[in-house]
Structure formats: C-alpha cells, structure tokens
Specification:
mainly alpha; 4 helices
Length: about 80
C-alpha cells in the first residue's frame, strides 16, 4: 500500500468533509479512495449492466440516500455484499 498526498481547494475540501460525514465515510481519505475505486474499477464490475442501467441505479441510490431511506452509503454497501 502506498500513501498519496492530495491538495484540494478550500471549498472542495469543505464539501468533501460534509459529504463524507453525511454518507458514513470515516474521513475524506476514505471518500477519495472510494471515489477512485468507483472510477477506476467500475467497468470491471459493471459489465452486466448497460451505461443507462448504471445511471438509473445511481440515481435511485442517490435519491434514497438523500431521503434517508437506505441509511448511509456504508449501510448500502453492506446490504449489497
């Protein structure tokens, strides 16, 4: 495992901290790792779904999380494992 140091503009960092707290990430580092995993590995795992289906699933998840119907992002990830 390697460590990276990232620089964020103040507004982006504040938004990332708020997002991490709202969706159950321990910190911005965990959020950043999750985001990278999503971008880099997404195609490898989602070959069974079309891009349109993935977008629809993402929208359902986002809306459900924003309305607190599913708990946190971690709760959702645990439920989907």
């Amino acid at each position: 495992m390697k460590q990276l140091n990232l620089k964020f503009p103040d507004k982006l960092l504040a938004a990332a901290q708020k997002y991490a707290k709202s969706y159950g990430f321990r910190n911005v580092q965990e959020l950043a790792a999750d985001c990278l995993r999503e971008r880099v590995l997404r195609k490898a795992y989602d070959r069974s779904f079309s891009e349109k289906e993935i977008e629809l699933i993402d929208r359902v998840i986002e809306r459900s999380l924003s309305k607190r119907h599913l708990g946190t992002g971690k709760d959702l990830a645990r439920a989907l494992k």
